[in-house]
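Meet today's protein:

…
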Amino acid sequence: MQSKPIDTGRLGVMRCVIAPEARMTPDGEVRRDREGQPQWITGLSVRQAEGRRTDVIHVVVAGAQPQGIAEGAEVRVTGLWANEWEVDGRSGTSWRADAITPVTASGGSGAGAGTGNSTGQRGKASGDA
């Protein structure tokens, strides 16, 4: 399937709805990326800038657990990628990012800060949403 970079500057406000937690395998082990880094999954609400529609996406980051992110807090997502997948007749989109950080009062709005617009190609998704 295809990976697509997402310009987070066009998404509007993003808030944490599920705090970061370890992404697990069906066997109960912490899932790791190709470099052996642990993966963390965070549920985010995304309100589109052009309207009232809000979506919830589950974004995976690898490495250290994202810190300072509480449910309800506005966040900034850097290097966001959407990965389309299809397995056994099911399909969907998984989301990966380089980082998820809290927006501080002095840091301004998450809508315009950090475009998350990477130009390099990322690896394929693991097949899970």
